Amino acid sequence: MNQLVVDLLRVNLRHVREFRDRFDTVQDAQFPGAVTVCCSDSRVLQDHIWGNDEPGQVFTVGNIGNRVIQRTEAGPVVSGDVLYPVAHTGTETVVVVGHTGCGAVTATYDALTGRLPEGSEPAGIEYCLDLLKPHLRPGVETLPDDVGRAGAVNRLVEYNVDRQVEFLCDSDDVPDGVSVVGVVYDFQDVYGGERGEVQLVNVDGETDVDSLRESHPEVEDRINRLWTY
């Protein structure tokens, strides 16, 4: 047996001892307060970001590029992974979680600027990048001329979060009472805070920092953006 798998199973026993009594109230149903849509990245630990250690509190969705959009024959729709808790478990808060240095955004940026030749990624990855390209293309075209590649990517991380939030807010499948929030998880010292801080960049489509701070003074120190476009 692969030693890593052996180690993972051993660690799972610690989880068993810690959590064995925490499933009593959620064995038959779940009513999570929030669904988080996070980028699939080993450096971004969805539950740990929020200090979540109770089953049933957070419905976690992960994919490269923290996408909420799914392509169907009828056109783009809100992904069923994201929509399920909103439609079936009474969840009324969606949090789109981007992160600094996002590989999916980097690859999409490189593809849109000719640095990454078409077809250079496996088909499954190309499919995911193709879902991001039409939403990030206007952002790439709007980037300041004097920004470097890393700076461009981190601005596009915000831009991508904004586009995912916008799609949710505009969808008829998402009830008006659902709050949609966009954040960026920073572990690369980009925003000037502590490593691992979540920066609030979008609330229900509002992206203006001053307006957000005025509307949400209780978290004004966590409302920051790199880019106003």
Distance between the termini: 52 Å
Uncertain parts: none
Class by alpha and beta content: alpha/beta
Q: How are helices and strands ordered from N to C?
A: HEHEEEHEHHHEEH
CATH homology superfamily name of the domain at 31-99 and 154-222: Carbonic anhydrase
- Tally of contiguous helical segments: 7
Nearest-angstrom radius of gyration? 19 Å
Strand order of the largest sheet: 2-1-5-6-7
User: How many strands, what sense, and barrel or not for the largest sheet?
Assistant: 5 strands, mixed
Overall shape: it is globular
Overall pLDDT metric: 96
CATH topology of the domain at 31-99 and 154-222, which one? Beta-carbonic Anhydrase, Chain A
Helix content: 25-40%
Keywords: Lyase, Metal-binding, Zinc
Cofactor: Zn(2+)
InterPro entries: Carbonic_anhydrase, Carbonic_anhydrase_sf
EC number: 4.2.1.1
Describe the structure.
- The protein is of the alpha/beta class.
- It has a domain at 31-99 and 154-222: Beta-carbonic Anhydrase, Chain A (3-Layer(aba) Sandwich), CATH 3.40.1050.
- It is 39% helix and 18% strand.
- The protein is built from seven helices and seven strands.
- It has helices at 3-19, 46-49, 80-88, 103-112, 123-142, 149-170, 209-215, and strands at 34-39, 58-63, 69-72, 75-78, 93-99, 179-186, 197-203.
- The strands form two sheets. Strands 2-1-5-6-7 form a five-stranded mixed beta sheet.
- Strand 3 and strand 4 form a beta hairpin.
- Helix 4 (103-112) crosses helix 5 (123-142) and helix 5 crosses helix 6.
Write the layout of secondary structure elements.
Elements: H1 3-19, E1 34-39, H2 46-49, E2 58-63, E3 69-72, E4 75-78, H3 80-88, E5 93-99, H4 103-112, H5 123-142, H6 149-170, E6 179-186, E7 197-203, H7 209-215
Parallel strand pairs: 1-2, 1-5, 5-6
Antiparallel strand pairs: 3-4, 6-7
Helix pairs in contact: 4-5, 5-6
Pfam family, one: Pro_CA
Catalytic activity: hydrogencarbonate + H(+) = CO2 + H2O
Family: Belongs to the beta-class carbonic anhydrase family.
